[in-house]
Write a structure and sequence with these properties.
Order of helices and strands: HHEEEHEEEEEEEEEH
Shape: rod-shaped
CATH superfamily of the largest domain: Trypsin-like serine proteases
CATH topology of the largest domain: Thrombin, subunit H
Strand content: 25-35%
Distance between the termini: 117 Å
Number of domains: 3
CATH architecture of the largest domain: Beta Barrel
Number of helices: 4
Number of strands: 12
Length: 277
């Protein structure tokens, strides 16, 4: 074989060897990359599984807490019925299912259902500054609320929640007597569905709107009670708890029920073209 033939064959063999080496390096690199990608994906799956399990655990704990809260509320209801005496023994249980916590993204108050279709009355100032509003009923169910309208003169707002409910009836506030016993239901300082007992201390008190339209009561009222009902021994609403004077004790004020009725019907006529109560 001639020398130049040997050089040609040797050069060709070298090229093939180099090519095989390069292919081996590339194949090895590809395998390493796939291994890294697999490990990365596997870690992500493990992290996702851990996060999902954590959220499931949290959801389970919340369900348990909710069930516990309902059971505690039922136990508290028994104690409340006993604490306020025979005058209100049956009224609290009948009334509390018609009372709701009103919650916005910046605070909370109380409201009560005035119509079986889920119309709720509360104080307008409870909603001030909020961008959303929800209601929590006595079974701890969270329900989105629709804002219908308001009357700023009497600090009244009307909301609507879905579903059918037992409603509270309004008494004729012209028949309210000084000295009669009453209860206030609300959420003072975030303590849901708390009940306080007192008497009517005075009627037709002048409010900050200049109108003599307020019942004075010594039933304990605190932040969170706003918008809740003031109820007489017949189980009827004689007022909506509105404000108290500064840090004073036993000086709470509720807008009289006849003014509630006028304000609600004015809102309903304007926004719904109907009368509610």
């Amino acid at each position: 074989m001639k020398r130049h033939h040997k050089w040609a064959i040797g050069g060709f063999s070298t090229v093939i060897i180099i090519t095989l080496i390069i292919l081996a390096i590339l194949l090895n690199g590809l395998m390493v990359k796939q291994s890294i990608d697999y490990n990365t994906l596997n870690n992500k799956i493990l992290n996702l599984q851990a996060d999902t399990q954590s959220k499931l655990n949290e959801l389970t704990e919340n369900i348990i807490k909710t069930q516990t809260t309902v059971e505690e509320s039922q136990e508290e209801l028994v104690l409340l019925k006993a604490s306020v005496g025979e005058d209100f023994s049956g009224i609290i249980e009948d009334s509390i299912s018609s009372v709701v916590t009103i919650r916005t993204d910046i605070g909370q108050g109380t409201g009560f259902i005035i119509d079986e279709e889920g119309y709720v009355v509360t104080n307008a100032h409870v909603l001030t500054g909020g961008s959303m509003v929800q209601a929590i009923n006595s079974q701890q169910e969270l329900i989105d609320a629709i804002f219908i309208g308001y009357n700023l003169d009497f600090d009244i707002a009307l909301l609507k929640i879905s579903g059918n409910y037992k409603s509270l009836n309004l008494a004729d506030s012209d028949e309210v007597q000084i000295g009669e016993k009453v209860i206030a239901i609300g959420n003072p300082l975030g303590l849901q569905f708390s009940v306080s007992q007192g008497i009517v201390s005075a009627i037709h008190r002048q409010g900050i709107n200049g109108v003599e339209a307020y019942i004075q009561t010594d039933a304990a009222l605190n932040p969170g009670n706003s918008g809740g009902p003031l109820i007489n021994k017949e189980g009827k609403v004689i007022g909506i708890n509105n404000f108290k004077i500064g840090d004073s004790e036993s000086l709470g004020f509720a807008l009289e029920s006849n003014y509630i009725k006028d304000a609600v019907n004015q809102i309903a006529q304007q926004e719904l073209n109907q009368t509610l109560i």
